[in-house]
Write a structure and sequence with these properties.
Elements lengths: L4 H10 L1 H24 L5 H17 L11 H24 L19 H20 L4 H10 L4 H8 L3 H20 L3
């Protein structure tokens, strides 16, 4: 069932259970992808699932703050998901006492002195690549991340993003071409 953003808002007032079900079906995979991108190096699967659940509840509880004039429901949900995932990341990092990067794998010990320069270059290049991938926007950045960082198939990626396999394949090809152009220009 597809509905417009104002229809969803009206459904929140009339039938909250159906409104929540619609929210979960339409945006559950998007929220999961956002949380996974922020917590992959620091949180467990349970932490990720808890964060996704918290976001769903927060979006639903704050539905009264949503305004179709301010932007799409997808943008509203994505913004809340990103902010909440970052908060969860901070809590997990603080609680575990580990030094995690929100964009990188866990780093526990500093590198040896002789490797410091090489590691710094690697980190800068990795950060630049992540920034370039993020600049592709959604869902292209998620597609690239799922396919090349998590090694998911087109079918698995499509399922996570609630898209068809054909759409994921086309967007992946376009995103890779755009990345090649951006990397060729030295961005």
């Amino acid at each position: 069932m597809t509905m417009t953003d104002p229809e969803w808002y009206a459904l929140c007032r009339d039938d909250r259970k159906k409104a929540f079900t619609y929210l979960a079906e339409q945006f559950g995979n998007l929220i999961y992808a956002i949380v996974l991108s922020k917590l992959h190096g620091c949180g467990t699967r349970e932490d990720i699932e808890d964060c996704v659940s918290d976001i769903m509840v927060e979006v639903f509880r704050n539905a009264g703050n949503y305004s179709a004039e301010a932007g799409s429901l997808k943008t509203y949900v994505s913004t809340i998901a990103k902010r909440r995932a970052i908060d969860c990341f901070r809590q997990l990092s603080h609680r575990s006492g580990m030094y995690c990067s929100i964009d990188d794998e866990t780093v526990e010990l500093p590198p040896d002195e002789q490797d410091t320069e090489n590691e710094a270059e690697q980190n800068i290049m990795s950060q630049n690549l992540r920034d370039i991938i993020q600049s592709l926007g959604e869902p292209d950045s998620s597609i690239i991340i799922y396919q090349y960082f998590y090694r998911l198939t087109v079918k698995e990626t499509a399922k996570k993003l609630s898209m068809t396999s054909g759409a994921v394949q086309k967007r992946s090809v376009r995103a890779r071409k755009k990345l090649a152009q951006m990397l060729g220009k030295g961005e």
